[in-house]
Amino acid sequence: MITRSQILVLILNRLKSLGVELHKPALVEATEQTRLFGDKADLDSMGLVTLIADLEYDLQQNLGRTVSLVDEKAMSRLTSPFRRVDFLTDYLVEVVNQKKP
Amino acid sequence: MPNALITGTSRGLGRALAEKLLSEGWNVWGFSRNASLIKHARFTEQLLDITDESVVQHAVNLLSQNAVTLDLLVNNAGAASMNALLLTPAKTAEALMRLNYLGSFHTLQAVGKLMVRQRRGLIINITTVAVPLALVGEAAYVASKAAVDALTKVAAQELQPQGITVIGMGFGPVDTDLTKAVGKEKLALINQRIGRPDGTTLHEAVDFIFEKLNSKTLATGHLYYLGKIP
Prior knowledge:
The structure holds two protein chains of two kinds.
Chain A: H1 4-22, H2 25-28, H3 45-63, H4 85-98
Helix pairs in contact in A: 1-3, 1-4
Chain B: E1 3-7, H1 12-23, E2 27-32, E3 43-47, H2 53-65, E4 72-75, H3 90-118, E5 121-128, H4 130-133, H5 139-159, E6 164-171, H6 184-193, H7 202-213, E7 223-225
Parallel strand pairs in B: 1-2, 1-4, 2-3, 4-5, 5-6, 6-7
């Protein structure tokens, strides 16, 4: 079991690491309102892929089971869960609670 | 010691490559449907079906959970079928696409995520000269391998920013089970077309892969062929 606040911490920690790696201070100081992907966002598509790969691993380590964040329309739909940190947090809560292979 | 994952290690090129890597000090993991005859302290085999996405993902996750890093993935597992296009059963075409293309896709995706986290890695997708030669009588096989070539080129671009190199390596008929069903005359014709009249031995194919492994100038997204492609 993992709570929403724990998932948020995982995301913010990964963004902090990515911010250091990519020299983007906004990611180091990320909050729930930080935009991840799209206009005025600090991650490009490749940065987002990195974040997703890292978070899949974190969730698997926490839950002890396979978690897949593959989403058919994630990169294109207007309400993409990857647009903002809070959207992503809610999406991950949904994934870990529903998808149990 | 570097670590490699190879699909299709039970026989043929996959087995020969695994044995060569082991002899050079690598740790090798093999994904294969059938047990291989390789017995080595640094060889770990997982019997699985690479066309099953969840099975592949789970197997790669187990490597992650055991803190295994991967320097090299070789998508080698594959099958071929020789038949006239109009006589090829749809099931055959579907099976080849599933194993040759989707098998490579699933493994590349699962290992790609692991390598993205590492920010490094080399992925080799095994392809064939049959694609650029557009070999008659191999439509289903050629189409499935053409899909692998396209996957190689796109994956190379998407993964390059994370320090991952993706290349294709293609061969003419290599002396393996894959080419047993092909007539000698046809094999000779193909070998002539690619400038290798004596054909290609397993040893030569493995040496070619090693030559690229040791190269400092690999061009990501490139398809390297052993032989001349017109």
